[in-house]
Amino acid sequence: MTTPSPDDIAGNALLTRLKDDDLKRLTPHMVVLDLKAGDVLQHAGDTVTDTWFPCGSALAAFRIWIEDVNKGIEVALVGREGAVGGIVSNGNVPAYATSEVRAGGRFLRVKISTLERAKLESIALRHWFSRYSDCLIAQIFQTAACNATHNMVQRTAKWLLAATARTDGCEFEMTQEQLAEMLGVGRTFVTRIVSRLREEGLIATRRGRFIVKDEAALRARSCGCATAIRDHFDAVLHGIYPAE
Amino acid sequence: MTTPSPDDIAGNALLTRLKDDDLKRLTPHMVVLDLKAGDVLQHAGDTVTDTWFPCGSALAAFRIWIEDVNKGIEVALVGREGAVGGIVSNGNVPAYATSEVRAGGRFLRVKISTLERAKLESIALRHWFSRYSDCLIAQIFQTAACNATHNMVQRTAKWLLAATARTDGCEFEMTQEQLAEMLGVGRTFVTRIVSRLREEGLIATRRGRFIVKDEAALRARSCGCATAIRDHFDAVLHGIYPAE
DNA sequence: TGGTGTCTGTACACTTGTGGACAAACCGGT
DNA sequence: ACCGGTTTGTCCACAAGTGTACAGACACCA
């Protein structure tokens, strides 16, 4: 039940946006958690009661479970630019998506009731959170359209870009099997795509690990979706989207 | 600049949720519009200043423009169960999606500033709108995952179900060309799928028109996504989703 | 009634993605 | 250095979706 340090707060760009007096409405009620990849923040169907802020290179993901194929498709990534939990609904409803940790690290957790009280008291706080929720919905909009149009090479490249943008460095843990499930395609097909990207020198791989070697070329190989999302973040929350 | 009649209000299920005193905060500022299919409510990039409530069998859609293929993919349908414009963001940001009229009919328009003032004054109003925005995001979540996993027969069936659910009767205007663009696939492929559904007796078609003949069978042919979305509406906004 | 433009149907050659089977490579533990 | 489980690579037959070209059908208008 430790209170977050100034460094923890600085690790999340949305919190960093807040003025000190708004921050003081939240930080005394925050819990610091160190979570690892695969930990579940909230299960679909559970009532939403908390909000989590990923710090540093911690990374969360929303997944939608598709019954008939027994796969959980990843629909959005949330890193240090944002937060997870009740962002749109303000809580007290069943979570539609499962949110889980994709890259382990530090998370700050606060009760939605605390956040809601703070939003009622502060226009600025309300302002930033509603702007962030607009960016979150933009990301999901774009993903929905992207999934309907772009091929797997483009979408794989896009996923790698989105993931590296939100972590420090250009390397992260992930098996091809996991990546395939995120994207909703067969593992062998992902292997074929990854081999191709590696042959082209855009990425390198180790067992259970990806390394982005040439981010510009990877962006050229991907669809414009990652860039479109980043541009909306810039328009609405100038400078919040992590550099790549 | 006519004020909406009680019948107009009754035509939208979200407004019908509101108590009289909450409704009175909005109706005096509402504009009644009769729009036709293809009319644009807001262009992507324009600042969001208004909210529209579809009435009766009027139907709006969010579309995301994908540059590299020159197609506008449809990401969500909004009928009399909801509203379009600043639902999530509370306005004053550039719209990420274009919203346009898919089935002509009556719309009620109100300034976001009016809606925001009313939300500050009334807990109940805030409650219903944040619950509705949760349902809207659920719909987009599901669409994103659906587009990544389900085949075109299933998605076409799902689209037909979602459209008929929100209109009176089981018939609506739409060319196969338009449907193909909504879904982001080639026209000839849609024709093949439509022919199949027709041979199976699930639908009938006329030039520029679809008629659902056997809704239960169409649901069986579609993926579970339409049903999953409806269930979330029921859980969060009990009874708001239109009957089929 | 015939003409016109839009909408729909069909054929075809091609690319993308699927799913199972199995071999090879990796890496941590002892 | 070897073992064993996980991860990755490759092959293959098949299904799904693409895009062009062109023919036919429909609705409307004159």
Account of the protein in words:
- Chain A is of the alpha+beta class.
- Chain A has two domains: 6-124, Sandwich (Jelly Rolls), CATH 2.60.120; 148-233, Winged helix-like DNA-binding domain superfamily/Winged helix DNA-binding domain (Arc Repressor Mutant, subunit A, Orthogonal Bundle), CATH 1.10.10.10.
- In chain A, 44% of the residues lie in helices and 22% in strands.
- Chain A contains ten helices and ten strands.
- Chain A has a four-stranded antiparallel sheet. Chain A has a three-stranded antiparallel sheet with strand order 1-7-3.
- In chain A, a hairpin with a 4-residue loop joins β4 (59-66) and β5.
- In chain A, α5 packs antiparallel against α10 (225-236), α6 (152-165) crosses α8 and α6 packs antiparallel against α9.
- The first copy, chain A, starts with 5 loop residues before the first helix and ends in an 8-residue tail after the last helix.
- The A-B interface holds A 62, 64, 66-69, 71, 73, 75, 88-90, 93-94, 96-97, 130-131, 133-134, 137-138, 140-150, 183-184, 223-224, 232, 235-236 and B 62, 64, 66-69, 71, 73, 75, 88-90, 93-94, 96-97, 130-131, 133-134, 137-138, 140-150, 183-184, 223-224, 232, 235-236.
- Chain A binds a DNA duplex (30 and 30 nucleotides) through α8.
